[in-house]
């Protein structure tokens, strides 16, 4: 952490890339401002309570990383500092309740399904609730899809070309199980056998990025034990999960599992990267030509540096015209639990993202992260333009199914 602090020369290249600086316009709401605050706290020159409001407003989107000429890995500062802050800060009653709900419900699909079902019943009363709790209800879909258990092994079609393990995710299993089913079918079409361990759990990214380091480690350890080692890759179809698992070496730094965490992280790939490397089976055209806006999820584009593979996957579908979104590098405001904990800033970013998408004239949107999909869907609907929004693999699956 000290190395990354020293590497920052406060040049200011990060300012125009930072979504919160764009919205709030304050130096302390920029990456270099937050680095200064974190340094001052850790050196005992500033009280944590004075710095934490600005650090809390950080999305963790890492848009500052690609533009930094000094190569500061901002995530390697933010994640450990949030864990430190969580141990030493005092939260108010409402914040404690919100954090308790997030920690004990979101990472567990069955609990989340039950909570979301109750939330739908409480939706008409949302205006009576505090802002953070109201934000949770406003992001729920009008109806929840039926629970759809996955097989432990999904076989490849024809000759097997690879064998992988798939992280099923937690929130995604409840809000959009069709994404995993589409992923399984696409992988099978391309000769990939998929293992979906029954006793896997949340990757821990939500806990890690909100300062709950011990919970994140416990969840990760369970996956170390649950995931088979004799596979070609650990696949994820959620950008946030992929980024979180790639951060396992940071999470376990200095602990006995550090080597195991590093080996696990090396095997993690976004499903679009894996398919691009493997070589995609050609797909038939969609029934109609489609003008499609592709949204770069921050934890795919910035944190993992994955931009081309999803575009190649979508570009492989005949009749699809890919459209670039103006200011596409800016976060949509989802950022894990950010839209629940900082709803005003998240709402501003979500609305701007939706407006930028509409400028493209797109007929539909594609993205590679369930949080982004939910956030964009919510704000397009709020603007009265509820364009269809799909996961990248859902569109490829539709093309294969058209044959």
Relative strand content: 5-15%
The name CATH uses for the topology of the domain at 282-401 is: Rossmann fold
**CATH class designation of the domain at 282-401:** Alpha Beta
Mean pLDDT: 92
What does this structure look like?
There is one protein chain. With 403 residues, this protein is α/β, with parallel strands linked by helices. Among the domains are: 2-88, Orthogonal Bundle (Fumarate Reductase Iron-sulfur Protein, Chain B, domain 2), CATH 1.10.1060; 282-401, AF0625-like (Rossmann fold, 3-Layer(aba) Sandwich). It has helices spanning 2-7, 19-24, 31-42, 48-56, 64-67, 75-88, 93-105, 109-122, 131-138, 171-175, 177-189, 205-209, 213-226, 239-246, 248-251, 258-266, 271-278, 298-301, 308-315, 338-341, 343-359, 370-382, 392-401, and strands at 153-154, 162-166, 192-195, 233-236, 268-270, 290-294, 320-324, 364-367, 389-391. Strand 8, helix 22 and strand 9 (389-391) form a beta-alpha-beta unit. Helix 4 (48-56) crosses helix 6, helix 11 crosses helix 23 and helix 17 (271-278) packs across helix 19 (308-315).
């Amino acid at each position: 952490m000290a190395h990354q602090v020293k590497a920052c020369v406060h040049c200011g290249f990060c300012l125009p890339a930072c979504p919160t600086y764009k919205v709030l316009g304050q130096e302390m709401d920029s990456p270099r401002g937050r680095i200064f605050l974190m340094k001052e706290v850790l050196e005992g020159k500033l009280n944590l309570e004075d710095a934490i409001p600005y650090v809390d407003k950080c999305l963790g989107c890492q848009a500052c990383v690609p533009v930094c000429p000094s190569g500061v890995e901002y995530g390697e500062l933010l994640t450990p500092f949030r864990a430190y802050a969580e141990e030493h800060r005092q939260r108010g009653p409402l914040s404690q309740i919100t954090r308790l709900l997030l920690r004990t419900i979101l990472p567990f699909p069955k609990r989340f399904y039950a909570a979301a079902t109750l939330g739908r019943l409480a939706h008409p009363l949302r205006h009576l609730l505090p802002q953070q709790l109201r934000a949770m209800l406003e992001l729920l879909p009008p109806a929840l899809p039926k629970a759809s258990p996955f097989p432990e092994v999904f076989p490849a079609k024809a000759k097997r070309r690879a064998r992988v393990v798939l992280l099923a995710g937690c929130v995604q299993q409840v809000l959009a199980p069709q994404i995993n089913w589409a992923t399984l079918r696409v992988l099978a079409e391309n000769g990939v056998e998929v293992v979906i361990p029954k006793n896997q759990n949340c990757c821990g990214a939500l806990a890690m990025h909100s300062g709950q380091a011990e919970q994140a480690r416990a969840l990760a350890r369970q996956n170390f034990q649950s995931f088979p080692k004799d596979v070609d890759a650990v696949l994820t179809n959620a950008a946030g999960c992929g980024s979180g698992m790639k951060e396992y070496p940071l999470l376990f730094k200095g602990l006995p599992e550090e080597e195991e965490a590093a080996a696990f992280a090396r095997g993690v790939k976004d499903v679009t990267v894996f398919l691009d490397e493997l070589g995609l089976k050609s797909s038939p055209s969609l029934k109609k030509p489609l003008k499609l806006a592709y949204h770069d999820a921050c934890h795919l584009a910035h944190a993992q540096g994955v931009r081309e593979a999803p575009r190649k996957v979508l570009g492989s579908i005949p009749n699809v015209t890919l459209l670039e979104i103006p200011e596409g590098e800016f976060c949509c405001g989802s950022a894990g639990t950010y839209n629940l904990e900082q709803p005003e800033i998240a709402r501003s970013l979500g609305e701007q993202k939706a407006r930028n998408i509409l400028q493209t004239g797109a007929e539909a949107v594609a993205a590679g992260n369930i949080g982004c999909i939910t956030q964009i869907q919510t704000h397009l609907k709020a603007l009265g333009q509820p364009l269809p929004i799909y996961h990248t693999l859902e569109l490829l699956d539709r093309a294969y199914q058209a044959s």
